[in-house]
## 1
Amino acid sequence: QKEVEQNSGPLSVPEGAIASLNCTYSDRGSQSFFWYRQYSGKSPELIMFIYSNGDKEDGRFTAQLNKASQYVSLLIRDSQPSDSATYLCAVPYSGSARQLTFGSGTQLTVLP
Amino acid sequence: DTEVTQTPKHLVMGMTNKKSLKCEQHMGHRAMYWYKQKAKKPPELMFVYSYEKLSINESVPSRFSPECPNSSLLNLHLHALQPEDSALYLCASSQDSTGRSVYGYTFGSGTRLTVV
């Protein structure tokens, strides 16, 4: 089982729609969860972090965490073409001494 | 502008060359990292430096040699690389290496390495 798994993409949504990105993790000891956005040819950029069960909202982004189900998601409301990028879920994994381990990423395309 | 600076942005080197990648941060972070990222793949951890000491080497071949001269600088020395080593090399830093920081890692813009 992979340490961090993301729903397979690519994902396409029309402009203005809600994009839903999902991630599951295997290490029940993980406490912090991160979402990075990576534009093509660029480096990852941290957009959200969450460490408590429930929802965390920041502008158009909402992160949702369910530790019992080992599930974290990212919702992007009112999606814009500028949101088109690869979204990486990242979790500190005890197998690497709690270093940040990335999921395979979900490529999102927002269609004008 | 990123707070982690990597140089050079692009590097083409032959298999017999020796080159170095450089990374600098001035955020007072005490942990620094090297990641390797191939096209359409997530970043993969190579090395972790914590308080200027190498704490993790993820079974990286010896042709990659990291160095941390001080708390702000991180180098990656390259020697006798193979074409399959061509990738985006990312430097990152964080407050510490415990994995408990809620602020995650800050990445530099990366060095696009091509081995010919």
## 2
Amino acid sequence: QKEVEQDPGPLSVPEGAIVSLNCTYSNSAFQYFMWYRQYSRKGPELLMYTYSSGNKEDGRFTAQVDKSSKYISLFIRDSQPSDSATYLCAIIVSSGGDMRFGAGTRLTVKP
Amino acid sequence: GAVVSQHPSWVICKSGTSVKIECRSLDFQATTMFWYRQFPKQSLMLMATSNEGSKATYEQGVEKDKFLINHASLTLSTLTVTSAHPEDSSFYICSARGLAGGQNEQFFGPGTRLTVL
């Protein structure tokens, strides 16, 4: 079983839709949760970072963590064509530890 | 966020040659640098972790004699792919962790695309 599971998609939605991206993880010791966005042929950029169960909101983006279910989500409201990218979840066991990535979900937002 | 650069951004080489990729943290000191490899439509796979001034720690299955990593300073790490072969063609991405952000924040470089003919 992989440490971090993420559906690679692809996922295609119309402009303005709410997008839900999800990851599950197997190790309950994971403590820190990130979402990265990666445009084609570019390095990943950090979108959001959280370490506790619950929701964290930043503009159109909301990160949600449910430690009891080992499930993390990223919601994108009012999606835009510029949101088209691959979204990767990443998890760290402990402070300063190695990062483990999900497979990444390719998202296309159609105008 | 902090800036990490990579050079070159794209390199094409013949089979059997060696290629050096540089990773620099431009506005912070990187105590730890990571090297990842990403094949098309796949996620990032950690190759090795290096701390300034010490030997790199390689992930299982990554040949340390083929992928030479040097982290000589707090702002520079290099990855040398020795005797590159077509199967080494991939997107190589470095990331750096240091005093710029929280201890758990890693800043990624733009990646280097390696094509081995």
